[in-house]
Amino acid sequence: MWFLVAMVVIGTAWLSALPYRYSSDGLSMLRVSFRHPGQIVEGCRDATEEEKKNMPDHMRTDKICSRERFPVRLVIELSGETLLDRSYTPGGLQHDWPSVAFEELGVKPGKYHLKARLYESNDSAFNFESEVEFKPGRVVVLDFGRSERKFEILSAS
Amino acid sequence: MLLNGRFGGNVTLAWLTGVILVGISLAEGLTGYFLVWDQQAQIIARELFRALDILPIFGEPLSRSLLSQSSMSNMLFFIMLFFHIMAAIGILVFVWLHVNRVARPRLAPPKPLLYATLILTALVSVVWPAKSNLQADLDAIPTQVNLDLFYLFWVPAQQIIGPVGALTLFGIGFLVVFTLPYWLRRRATPAPIVNLDFCNGCRQCYEDCPYDGIVMRPRTDGAPFAEEAVVKADGCARCGACVGACNSGAIEMDGLSLRTLQPAIEERIRALPSGGVRVLVLSCQASAGGQAGAIDGLAGVANITVPCIATVHPFLAEYGLLAGADGVLLVGCPAEGGVYRLGNQWMEQRLEGSRHPRLRSTSVWEVNPSEGNGIFTLGAGAGEIAALRALIREIASKSDPGKHEMRGTG
Q1: What tens digit of pLDDT does each residue of A96-110 get?
Q2: Please, what are the domains in chain B?
Q3: Secondary-structure breakdown of chain B: helix, strand, coil percentages, each rounded to the nearest 5
Q4: Which of A61, B190, B224, B321 has the smallest CB count inside 10 Å?
Q5: pTM for the full model?
Q6: Which chain B residue lies closest to A3 (C-alpha atoms)?
Q7: Which residues 65-124 of chain A have a CB within 8 Å of chain B?
Q8: Enclosing domain of residue A106
Q9: Which residues of chain A make contact with B130, given a CB cutoff of 8 A?
Q10: Helix, strand or coil for residue B315?
Q11: Total structural domains within chain A
């Protein structure tokens, strides 16, 4: 029995600290994220008298507004090459919540001209440009809207 | 549990809570490792959140909490600590549920195993201590780490097949294991029936039930006894320990009772050729003796199979000798890993006289004074047929053929 228990204990100990290669050496990464509401799809219109009549007293308003928001589109370019171009659907059943993104993009180490554009509607966008160096094994973190409505690099390699 | 078929019927709750306990133990380990916040914790957090983000239950991706080292909130550790403590409490609650329908649950392993595990674990932890990896850094990509694959077996799988594939694979696997009692359900053996005409409310069946299958309640038939036994079908494993415990033959299960087994034994012994050694074997259905063809061809051997060796009332062993057998062999499951619980223990205690109903040793000694009491026991699993056959041959070689002729019944 001692032998069997010893085998189990040693096996468990061996299994609990097994050398494992999680990722290759020399990789670099761009981590980009935002939480931002797209603009409302339609503007507001005047409510008709009939519509006003059907509204509860405490919710009566002259304007009726759509709650649906535009998907937010994010475009990332590195030295003129598009790394990411994706639209993020707003959350919520009525698509009236902010769009949220979290992307991890593998990048070859080196110096790049990073260009980021975030479209909150068809005709409104936030732009960002910067020279960035990606070092092996390090992550460049680009976030939008953490403190202000703009891109900022949280960590550079 | 799985190989012994212990996942359905009255142990369904134990199976379901057992599967959940495995999951909670995994959560306990993962949250514990998270709190260390080394590179392994970083991988756990990254891969776990990557998988959870697929589920449409969070307002925004959990991964965003791992954006960068500078933006990481201490609240994440507080939440993990909360889940770590909740998992420990969950283990206690589910262990209680796990053994809820089991009488006399054995929560601790046998002492030699316990001490061996404690000593060897302590020794290995000194010689080969568990060390943390390098401190986590969300702004760096972990490369070579020491991973605990006991808890993180799913990480390499998720890296290969992606979070959707891994979640689908483990989700389906969990569902299949969780619902095994439904998929592999067998024809239900009828629950035991208590014949109140013979029940004197002695409580022995209640004492011997290894599960939660018998309750005692005030007498309902006007008989001059305080209580009567009632079978709870949903708590009964159909092991028949109550049948073997009943002195008055009041309990019958699927045609088995003291009253039906007695004539069956007599009939089987009478059917054996006279003039040679005759051995009666009473076998648990999961033991070596219960396997088809295991000992059926042996000359002079009558084998009767019962659900559990505790189904056998000790009087039946005695009656085997009285009916003309030269030896009676009771075959139970191996000491560990039986299909039902406590069968061997009850059998041994009944035979040695420390548990009711007791073997009436004096009358057996009258029958077989030179060869002990002529009753033998063996714990042998389905794969130990050779050991069973060897013991039967040994019993036969020691016996004096025809010494015990049927007495009193013609």
Answers
A1: 889 999 999 999 999
A2: 9-183 (no CATH), 188-256 (3.30.70.20), 262-410 (3.40.50)
A3: 45, 10, 40
A4: B224
A5: 0.72
A6: B116
A7: 91, 97-98, 100, 102
A8: 25-38+71-155
A9: 13, 16-17
A10: helix
A11: 1
